[in-house]
Amino acid sequence: MNKPSRTGELSDREKELLRPYVSDVDATVFTIRNLNPEVVGAALARYSRAPTGFKETVVREFLNRDGTPNEVKGTELIDRVVNKFGDESVAELAVSPLCIEEVSNLMTKVIEDCRIGGSPIEESTRYVLYDEKRNGRWRYIRPQCVLESGLRDQFVGTMDFLFETYADLVEPMQALFRRRLPAEKFTIEVERGGGVIKAGPAQLETDAERRAHRIAYGFTIRSAACDVIRCILPAATQANLGLVANGRFYTGLISKLLTHGLGEANELAANIQRALGTQIPTFIKRAERKAYLAGIATGMRTLCGELFKDVAIEKTAEVVLLPEGGQEDRVNLLASMVFPYVQHSTAQIRRVVRALPEEKRRRIFETYLGERNSKRDRPGRALEHGYPIEFDVIAGFAEYRDLQRHRMLTQQRQDLGVLLGYSVPEEIAEIGREDIVRECFERTEALHRDLHRAGMPEEAQYATLFNHFIRWNVGMNLRELGHLTELRTQKAGHPKYRRTAQLMARLYLNRHPDMEPVLKFVDHNDYDGGITRAEQEARTARKSLAAGVFDDMD
């Protein structure tokens, strides 16, 4: 092939060849279409070395004479730059959407914990009911190692009991919220005389308005019920998850899943690799199990088990704002290394570490760092310790699922467990089902203990419920604290995570009252009744009427 032309002007023939692949062959801003992601990535990678732009690069280097893409050349360039030269930033130039279906809610958190380069969206237990079987089964994961153990019948029996109870709660809970907010008192926004008014059933004038009212009211009641009864869904509950991410993110995700201690993660890694192999195979070529990280996890679990086996877990407030700065940076760093491997609070871990002899402190540090053989052996997030704002938070797994999605910060969570307790929503007692709901917690706690005794501590996490408490530590700067607390305290949010965010804001402002303007739009109100989506659905109804598009999925 002749050396590509360096001129920035396209010939008429080149423009004709390019038309299927860019939105405008004459523009300096354009979109790309109909090209394999590996060709796109390779052509974009040439920006740093080619004297001409993307269009000239594509038509002269990556199209055959008949105008078809030369995908082999794109793959070869990416393989050379990413996999041979190690330029990982180039792996961010190829983006692929991916659907991951019927994985456990526990696994969705493992996936979403990968922070940079991927945008996830998952099936929400706040809006979707889990009251019907699929293919004759309730929607929960069945770990192979558990099914092959002597606990198979207990696991399946417990999970079936949970979902049967959940299904039995759906109608009584919706009836409770219909009594709290009758349909005739529910209003939607409609346009009248050039303005907008709130109208109930008696003020609706058209079939479209009545349809919008029915849909908005039904969704409001259903989501209010979902918010309550998801308290007994287990971490094993299956969900669908969508991802749009780049090659670098996927390489890290696959490597993480291959390294994880759960069989579900290992199997999922292979399935993701197989699916992405049809789109961006070269960009994920370096994904592999990280023996370095697996060794650290094993070593830290063993060491922390020894150091904390006789240390009782102290009770703490649900949100604790940790001290700023101080003279114990090394103690605090070691405590951050320990945090994910125990169930104790950061403050308690720091006290224990402070009292350890130097030899044991050194063991923590050396075990956490492991045996690094190259720059690619990167230690974990404890080394990110040192944010100006740091919280320990205890909340239900349900609330953690929402608050974990914030990624411009550092989070470390502890394993799901039963030692920190649980909560039962007051609405459960109102419909007379508190006894059976508490039985759900008792059964899963027995299963959790039995899985631990059987040598399956990671699988035991599947046997925790959404309202079992989990502890996590989060460090952030002031800008992220403002974003998180202003977003998560708005009225449409879940009452529990709204309370957590309100406490975070209140604790910080007690310490730094002059920072109130930064947290100006934190909503400190306490909304009664549990029907917090009514106003949002009223606005949504007006938008549906204007567009003539109704989201009636029921």
SSE layout and pairing:
Blueprint (H helix, E strand, L loop, with lengths): L11 H7 L18 H9 L8 H9 L8 H14 L10 E10 H8 L5 E5 L21 H4 L4 H29 L7 E5 L2 E5 L7 H23 L8 E9 H13 L3 H14 L14 H18 L10 E3 L7 H10 L7 H10 L2 H12 L19 E8 H7 L6 E4 L12 H5 L3 H20 L15 E8 L1 H11 L6 H17 L22 H14 L7
Antiparallel strand pairs: 1-5, 2-5, 3-4, 6-7, 7-9, 8-9
Helix pairs in contact: 1-3, 2-3, 2-4, 7-8, 7-17, 8-20, 9-10, 11-14, 12-13, 12-14, 18-19
How would you sum up this structure, described in words?
By secondary structure, the protein is α+β, with helices and mostly antiparallel strands. Among the domains are: 12-93, no CATH class; 97-235, no CATH class. The protein has 20 helices and 9 strands. The chain has helices at residues 12-18, 37-45, 54-62, 71-84, 105-112, 144-147, 152-180, 207-229, 247-259, 263-276, 291-308, 329-338, 346-355, 358-369, 397-403, 426-430, 434-453, 478-488, 495-511, 534-547; strands spanning 95-104, 118-122, 188-192, 195-199, 238-246, 319-321, 389-396, 410-413, 469-476. Strands 6-7-9-8 form a 4-stranded antiparallel β-sheet. Helix 2 (37-45) crosses helix 3 (54-62) and helix 2 (37-45) crosses helix 4 (71-84). It is globular. The mean pLDDT is 90.
Relevant terms:
4-stranded antiparallel β-sheet, 554 residues, 10% strand, 3-stranded antiparallel β-sheet, globular, alpha+beta
